[in-house]
Amino acid sequence: MKPKPSISAVINTRNESENLTKCLKSLAGFADEIIVVDMHSSDDSVGVAKSFGAKVYPFRLMKVVEPARNFGISKVTGKWVILLDPDETLPKSLKEELLKITNRNDIDFVKIPRKNIIFHKWLRHSKMWPDYLIRFFKNGHVHWLNEVHSQPTTEGNGLNLLDSEKLAIRHINYSSINSFFSKALRYASARSEELIAQDYKIKTSDFLLKPIQEFNSRFFTASGFKDGLHGLIFSILQAISIELIYIKIWEKQGFQDKPLPKESFVSASQETVYEYSYWFTKYFTAEYTANILKTFFVRVRHYFDRLTKNF
Question: What domains can be seen in the chain, in order of their start residue?
């Protein structure tokens, strides 16, 4: 049997001692080296990491994780790298599949599905499944830009694992409303700074249209309604998180007191109503095909929404 190529795990931490224990336990028998990049935790994250034999490196606290992620990757010595967040774990079946891949010469990076547990429920819709991410790759073949939620640049050949629960990273994404808003505010702050640096000019539609587009994309387009009340609430929260980006821009620009142009407000409002009406009508006519009369009137209402959109 061929010897197993060396595998290095990279994890970034910031006050994640409770989650980190579960994460590190899931790496047993899989990772030969564990690199933990800690961003000035005030809890016992560093102690937990060291108790598992991890190499711990301090890193300055930043609003985005990508620079710390690249720093951690630069410290690995293994041929392959598994990248995890502290609130993620690897199931046994996924580890077995990844070990098989390490013996292939035609694969340089792997996209792995992620099972997102949000408010104690696995969301199978709402744009949260299969949630493919590049998390396993040969050392030197993947690099992240220093931007919030950036997509990595890759070299070589990639592979998508089957979108099976058995082959998915398990992610305890949000365990409370407070945890959601804590992350949403950090993301909004970082993203708003990026947009300001690009000289972005906020518009009335940013506060009305973009949040409803986010809601529609998750609840209707991605069938978030199939996730039940979880899907509805999560879609609403994601819409609020988009809203926060543009409110943060307004804040960083000094809460400028500007008049609200009637024309732009009316136009943005009508466009917002039309967007929601369009997706609601598609949903309604698909879910209530047997109720011909109701479906007819919903279609008529949408027709008038379309007529008045550009008034």
Answer: 7-173 (3.90.550.10), 176-308 (no CATH)
